[in-house]
Amino acid sequence: MLPASLHCIDLDQPALEGFREFISAWFLRRAGFNLLVDPGPKSTIPHLISQLDRLGVDRIDYVLLTHIHIDHAGGTGEPLRTYPEARVVCHPEGIRHLVAPEKLWQGSRKVLGAAMTEAYGEILPVPAKQVDYAAEIPEAGLRAYLTPGHAVHHVCYLLGDLLFAGEAAGVRCECPAGIYMRPATPPRFILEVALDSLDRMIALRPERMVFAHYGLVENALEHLHIGREQLPLWVQGAVATMGMEPGRREEAFFAWLQKRDAIYRNIRQLPPDIAAREKIFLGNTLRGMSDYVDKLPADRLRDLLPH
């Protein structure tokens, strides 16, 4: 159950198969401050604003971006028109892309494809005077941590015992029994960087955690450790399937994981449309890992091969 001060706002995409219970924004009232985390893509901003109206929100003090990918930050410029006092906080490397988003838009189309980016909507610019990075917001009791891994511009935010983890630990879905998770490693992925980010979040020992995809969990450390264990295992799978034709490699990678990753194996429990969505994103994760392993020297590849 969510605390009364914390609200999840689903940002479903009916035009895309299985894009429900996948993207969300989070609104938090804390000690006189209103915080909005990851407002989402442009296409869902009208729904976001209507839900904030329903909650009686008349002011937002901070908009926190875990990262600047189109599905989490693409619509950020729009709610700033409704809440002009809001200050946007993001990774220092993300600021210039929010202010002038053309390169970010082109990169989104390259990684996600035209159909998905068109469904999300264009990336709206954020006024330069309203965006910066803050390692700490003392009046809100919040600290930010640079956590490159999923993206070079990724940030996690710790508020008391609650960690807004973005995609640092990957993607999570509800399933009837057990836990379903997978890494989220689009290009450019570097295993050591991603593991270091997770290790630093584990060291914080949060009790609760919000996944950008998807939901609040009460056992944060368990999920962080699962993400930490999955990353090197999946890289082993990328090494084990090297040299295959891309389409065949993805199917072989999936089969390899089904035998070795009991957490990912729970994809079988997901509703068919959500499982189909997850299979699509498997290819994106494999591309990032493939780029990483393809650049490794032979001795490092041997170390990563399953024994």
Question: What do you see in this structure?
Answer:
By secondary structure, the protein is of the alpha/beta class. It folds into two domains: 6-146, Metallo-beta-lactamase, Chain A; 169-203 and 219-307, no CATH class. It is 39% helix and 18% strand. The protein has eleven helices and 14 strands. It has helices at 45-54, 70-73, 79-82, 95-99, 102-112, 114-120, 191-204, 220-240, 246-260, 272-294, 298-304, and strands at residues 6-10, 24-30, 33-37, 62-64, 87-89, 131-132, 136-137, 142-146, 155-159, 162-166, 171-173, 180-182, 208-211, 215-217.
Cα-to-Cα separation, first versus last residue: 43 Å
| Structural class by sheet pairing and helices | alpha/beta
Q: Give the number of helices.
A: 11
Helix content: 25-40%
The structural domain count equals 2
Order of helices and strands: EEEHEHHEHHHEEEEEEEHEEHHHH
Q: What amount of the residues lies in strands?
A: 15-25%
Main β sheet profile? 6 strands, mixed
CATH superfamily of the largest domain: Ribonuclease Z/Hydroxyacylglutathione hydrolase-like
Order of strands, main sheet, comes to 1-2-3-4-5-6
**Computed Rg:** 19 Å
**What overall geometry do the principal axes of the alpha carbons give?**
globular
The CATH class name of the largest domain reads Alpha Beta
Low-pLDDT runs of 5+ residues are: none
Give the name of the CATH architecture of the largest domain: 4-Layer Sandwich
Average pLDDT works out at: 94
Would you give the CATH topology of the largest domain?
Metallo-beta-lactamase, Chain A
Total number of β-strand segments?
14
